[in-house]
Amino acid sequence: MDYQNITVAGSGVLGSQIAYQSAFKGFNVTVYDINDEALKNAQDRITKLKPLYQKDLGATQEEVNAAYARLSFKSDLSEAVANADLVIEAIPEVVTIKTEFYTNLGKVAPAKTIFATNSSTLLPSQFAEATGRPEKFLALHFANTIWKNNTAEIMKHPGTDMNVFDEVVKFALAIGMVPLQLYKEQPGYILNSLLVPFLDAAESLLVKEIADPETIDKTWMIATGAPLGPFAILDIIGINTSLNIVEAKAAATNDESLNKLANLLRTKYIEKGKLGRASGEGFYKYPNPSFEKPDFLKG
Ligand code: NAD
């Protein structure tokens, strides 16, 4: 089946990007959210994407306006999915909210409609039964700023029909993503399965006072040729997000070194307003962080 009509449910950070990217690539897109206020926010958020598409992708004024014109906005779920070939869900990362959403969606969507979740941390099998159509359900996971960081991790759960999986791979390609196929469920998909232990290891070196962030990044960059080290990546993610994750793990395990790390992130960085790249300073100062200077890798 070739998809034409896409519905994106949840129009926050990621939903608005997924909706606009799909429209930019020529699909008819319905944006669904809980009420008119949320939809108004979505319109503002998507309007702000237009200049970024012009700057980053060289899109013309006509192209960004034509993409916007392919969007419609609805707060009634039945209306929003009446013609949908594919519904991409990007609603809050809360099990009860998603379960209720899929239960309702399964009742009102046409039988042909495929459902995909953009969830970062929850597995599709958790919701497969609630959808009422497990064979037509899977994960389609994007990265923030999807027009530039164009990965699409496509992940089956045990009951997903392989033809549905292949169709969604085709759709991801059609909207300019690089489809990355996961044949089995994996918490964290591919990217976070690699990234999370890598960042944990870097933070552990720091908290044990083995080396400073610059030396750790330098080691990684020189030895592997990577353009960024783990602390430069943590600055992009934001130190607050990192602290939230460390605190959750510390609470679950009562690991003393995690408590020490949380304390270090709080007192040395967050309480000093060093939140990462977005705040102008984290482990490095921005713009022009030291790791971008030519002599950084020389000594
Ligand atoms: P967000 O909080 O920015 O947006 C959530 C949107 O969902 C809001 O507009 C809200 O009004 C709406 N919503 C709430 N309940 C709803 C319901 N019952 N039905 C329809 N809409 C509802 O969240 P986000 O950061 O865009 O994340 C959404 C999903 O995308 C999550 O599953 C998250 O794991 C995933 N994700 C996020 C990122 C990211 O960097 N933010 C990256 C990849 C994946």
Structural features, described:
With 299 residues, the chain is of the alpha/beta class. Helix content is 48%, strand content 13%. It has 13 helices and 8 strands. Helix 7 links the parallel strand 5 (114-117) and strand 6 (137-142). Bound molecules: nicotinamide-adenine-dinucleotide (NAD). Nicotinamide-adenine-dinucleotide binds at residues 9-15, 32-34, 38, 90-93, 97, 101, 118-120, 141-142, 144.
Task: Describe how the helices and strands are arranged.
Elements: E1 5-9, H1 13-24, E2 28-32, H2 36-47, H3 49-57, H4 61-69, E3 71-74, H5 77-81, E4 86-89, H6 95-108, E5 114-117, H7 128-131, E6 137-142, E7 151-155, H8 162-174, E8 178-182, H9 191-207, H10 213-224, H11 230-237, H12 239-253, H13 256-269
Parallel strand pairs: 1-2, 1-4, 2-3, 4-5, 5-6, 7-8
Antiparallel strand pairs: 6-7
Bound molecules: nicotinamide-adenine-dinucleotide.
Question: What is this entry, summarized?
Answer:
This protein is of the alpha/beta class. The protein has helices at about 15-25, 35-45, 50-55, 60-70, 75-80, 95-110, 130, 160-175, 190-205, 215-225, 230-235, 240-255, 255-270; strands spanning about 5-10, 30, 70-75, 85-90, 115, 135-140, 150-155, 180.
What attributes does this structure have?
N-(1-d-carboxylethyl)-l-norvaline Dehydrogenase, domain 2; 8 strands; eight-stranded mixed beta sheet; 2 domains; 299 residues; globular; binds nicotinamide-adenine-dinucleotide; Rossmann fold; alpha/beta
Helix content: 40-55%
Number of DSSP helical runs:
13
Task: Trace the largest sheet across and list its strands.
Answer: 3-2-1-4-5-6-7-8
Q: Structural class, please? A: alpha/beta
Question: What would CATH call the class of the largest domain?
Answer: Alpha Beta
Poorly predicted residue ranges = none
The SSE order reads EHEHHHEHEHEHEEHEHHHHH
Report the span from N to C terminus: 56 Å
Instruction: Please report the total strand number as a whole number.
Output: 8
Bound molecules: nicotinamide-adenine-dinucleotide
Shape: globular
Determine Rg (CA atoms, Å).
21 Å
Whole-number tally of structural domains: 2
CATH fold category name of the largest domain = Rossmann fold
Strand fraction band?
5-15%
What characterizes the major β-sheet? 8 strands, mixed
The CATH superfamily of the largest domain turns out to be NAD(P)-binding Rossmann-like Domain
Name the CATH architecture of the largest domain.
3-Layer(aba) Sandwich
Mean pLDDT: 97
